[in-house]
Amino acid sequence: MSPTTTDAEAADRDRTHDRGGDRADDGTDLDRAIAAFAEGSPVLIHDAADREGETDLVYPARAVTPAALAQLRNDAGGLVCVALSDAVATAWELPFTQNELAHPAAADHDLGYDERSSFSLTVNHRDTYTGITDEDRALTVSELGRSIFRAPGHVHLLRGAPNLLADRQGHTELGLALAAAAEKPPAVAVCEMLTDGGGALSPGDARAYAERNGLVYVEGASIIEHLG
User: Fold this and answer.
1) Residue 3 predicted with pLDDT over 70
2) Residue 71, CB-side half-sphere exposure with 13 Å CA sphere
3) How many domains is the chain partitioned into structurally?
4) pTM for this one?
5) What is the number of alpha carbons within 13 Å of residue 69 lying toward its C-beta?
6) pLDDT for 65
7) Residue 127: inside a domain, yes or no?
8) Annotation says 56 is catalytic
């Protein structure tokens, strides 16, 4: 079941929207997020109210188990992707998908929130069957960089900007910056937090979900301020 909204959480959501939903903090949330990530725990990251305005559930890729994949699928509900650093993507010769498509649909790739998409290939681990089960996708995500894969597949790869937050400030770069600060490999699983109605989970509801589940919520503004 996706995160639900109680009256108290709705009030918290409204207060968060009044603050703009992306207030920077004194670094306390970020310190907690770095510590949690270093231990292999997921963190909730809100990008910015004037960007996508979404919160992603973000895991160190190697910490993703079938249970973690189920959490991403059930509690987050968006698209499960793995963000990789530009250096890794270059070493693997991973292209930006929009640069490889000859179809007319790729000609005008206008985005309201950014100049380009980070999407690269979709992959499956060679040892998966269909590739879509929690077990199969967890194997693909956790073994990225250490095993052989095939494309296309059921896990979307995202290519990080060369200078991370100095170039782009999407969840791809926010997650990779957090991984670097936590001294984790440059591969993070990300998935958008959605409501039961299909819209983006509000910052207030995302923070409430984090508190209920003993997780850390951090604003992208804090990551940019302290790690950018």
Assistant:
1) no
2) 20
3) 1
4) 0.85
5) 21
6) 98
7) yes
8) yes
